[in-house]
Amino acid sequence: MAAFRSWPRFASFEEDKELRDSLKWARYDLYRVIQWDMTNIPAPSFADASLYRSTFSQYYGMNCLKSGVGMQLCGWVTAEMPWTGAVEDGDYHSKAGYMEAQKEFQEADLVDGKVVKFHNILDRGYRGNVAAFRKDQLSLQPPSARSDRRFRGKETIYAGAVARDRSGNERGVRVMKRSGLYERGFKEGMSAKRFCDAFLTWGFRANFMYRPIH
Predict the structure, then answer these.
(1) Is 159 exposed, middle or buried (0-12, 13-18, 19+ CB in 10 A)?
(2) Largest CB tally within 10 Å, which of 82, 89, 143, 187?
(3) Following DSSP, what letter does each residue of 46-97 receive, concatenated?
(4) Which ranges of the chain have pLDDT less than 70?
(5) What's the rounded Cα separation, in Å, for the pair 87 and 198?
(6) pTM score of the predicted model
(7) Residue among 50, 78, 53 nearest 63 (CA)
């Protein structure tokens, strides 16, 4: 835990640029990009009604904890503190604290004396534009449309491009689930604090255990 707390939370712009796949990510050559997605951690069906409601996720159809998993283009993975499963992705994204951490990091990690803003690549489940604007950042998301309307040509291309780029972070989420502890999930009687601390340190250790995900 001490190593996790003392290590920089994100890769610097120069590290990210040097270690990323320059051909695959050529379109982001001058950008500081991070991809965010949510993952679920199984939890029991609590007998207590309030715990049951707060941990039940309509999306996953189960009681669980939910955590944000971020990945920079160089393959650096960061895991965030798990919350109860009923939380919406957009609320988690705006309130979990990593947007504030990114703002502080980009202001400290200047490039030629200038701030290079984080570009957050998200799926449709997030309300990312406002959260990014408030923290002096940018976001990229596939466009949304009513069920009775088809995308136009440019919207289709844009949606496909963002979805393709986000596929890397889905592989990052799978790395987080390689731990048997999180495959089995949280159990009644466990210490929630110790469980969450172990989850955060697992995300940190995974960066040194597996090949970087590009």
Answers:
(1) middle
(2) 82
(3) -SSHHHHHHHEETTTTEEEEEEEEEEETT--EEE---EETTS-HHHHHHHSS
(4) 125, 143-169, 212-214
(5) 21
(6) 0.86
(7) 53
What secondary structure letter does DSSP report for 26? Answer: G
Residue closest to 88 by CA, chosen among 133, 50, 54: 54
**pLDDT tens digit sequence for 171-204:** 778 888 888 888 899 999 999 999 999 999 999 9
Average pLDDT along the chain? 87
User: ∠55-145-85 over CA atoms, to 5°?
Assistant: 5
Give the angle subtended at the CA of 135 by the CAs of 130 and 140, to the nearest 5°.
55
By residue count, the chain amounts to: 214
Going by C-alpha positions, the residue among 84, 83, 119, 114 that lies closest to residue 99 is 119
Q: Which residue, among 103, 104, 105, 83, has the nearest Cα to 38 in the 3D structure?
A: 83
pLDDT at 209: 86
Task: Kindly state the tokens that stand for 101.
Answer: 């951490």
Residues 6+ apart with CB under 8 A from 8: 105
Give residue 19's region: left, alpha or beta (phi > 0; psi -120 to 50): alpha
